[in-house]
Design a protein that fits this description.
The chain has 278 residues and is an alpha/beta fold.
């Protein structure tokens, strides 16, 4: 029986992701991930061409969880049926700023049907992030949408890129967002590539805002500061994951934006995280 099927059948699908390794030696203090997820943006072109086949390929690799970046012309009920049939769950999905403004009810309803626990603002286009006042308006919207999500039993989150950690008008926008959003209404999906690319210290951020990062994107960087398959780059994920409790990590998603062979990238990322100890 596959591990995700066992978890589903025994009701352990909501258990902690980080579990001790079975050992009586010093290694017993080490942990590894109980479940491994993938952000489906990694395989977006394959999803657009064949959503069922791509999801099946992801399940066959061994993934337990997926994070959506669009349903590719499938209804929420169709997506839920596909996931159920493959033994996958989708704890989260990305939404757009415009969707939050004009389709809030539809987004929340879709999340309830598919089974998302989180909806995450995935991106701010350049015109939406020119000034700190732009970010103040986004913080207000995030709080409002976060309230709507909470009323439906869903958690809202914000996904970073590098620009939130680059100083703008004397302040890092990420610091403003964290300060001006309600910590109960707005969590953060930390992208470990982009925070590293920006030169920020993830441990400093975790210490300043403990427990606020239930989701993370596990995206690697090569020696030339370009994206790489997870495990083939320079980011020390074991060191970062050792701070999982402080950060609040619950879901770990492999991602690569520019994968030349998306399924190979998916397989490499799963293999790397599935054996990682920290």
């Amino acid at each position: 029986m596959k591990r995700r099927e066992f978890l589903k059948n025994t009701g352990l699908v909501t258990a902690s992701l980080a579990v001790p390794l079975a050992s009586s030696s010093c290694a017993a203090r080490k942990r590894q991930l109980e479940r491994v997820g993938i952000q489906l943006y990694t395989v977006r072109d394959l999803m657009a061409a064949d959503t069922p086949g791509t999801l099946q390929g992801i399940a066959d690799i061994g993934y337990d969880e997926v994070e959506f970046a669009g349903y590719h012309d499938h209804s929420p009920s169709q997506v839920r049926e596909l996931l159920d049939g493959m033994g996958l769950v989708a704890p989260s999905a990305h939404v757009s700023l415009e969707g939050m403004r004009s389709q809030a009810e539809e987004l929340v309803e879709a999340a309830q049907i598919v089974g998302h626990d989180y909806l995450v603002l995935g991106w701010l286009a350049p015109p939406d992030r020119e000034t700190l006042d732009d970010y103040r308006r986004h913080a207000e919207l995030c709080n409002r949408f976060g309230e709507q999500c909470r009323a439906a039993g869903i958690q809202f989150g914000y996904h970073n890129h590098e620009f939130e950690f680059e100083v703008l008008e004397g302040q890092r926008p990420m610091d403003l967002l964290l300060a001006e959003t309600d910590a109960e209404l707005v969590k953060v999906e930390i992208d470990l590539f982009w925070i590293t690319f920006a030169g920020a210290d993830p441990f400093e951020v975790f210490a300043a805002h403990p427990g606020r990062f239930p989701l993370c994107h596990v995206k690697d960087m090569d020696a030339d500061r370009k994206m790489a398959d997870v495990g083939a780059g320079t980011i020390d994920f074991a060191k970062i994951f050792a701070a999982s409790e402080q950060a609040g990590f619950k879901h770990y998603y492999v991602e690569r934006d520019d994968a030349p062979d998306p399924m190979a990238t998916a397989a490499a990322g799963y293999a790397s995280l599935n054996k990682l100890t920290f």
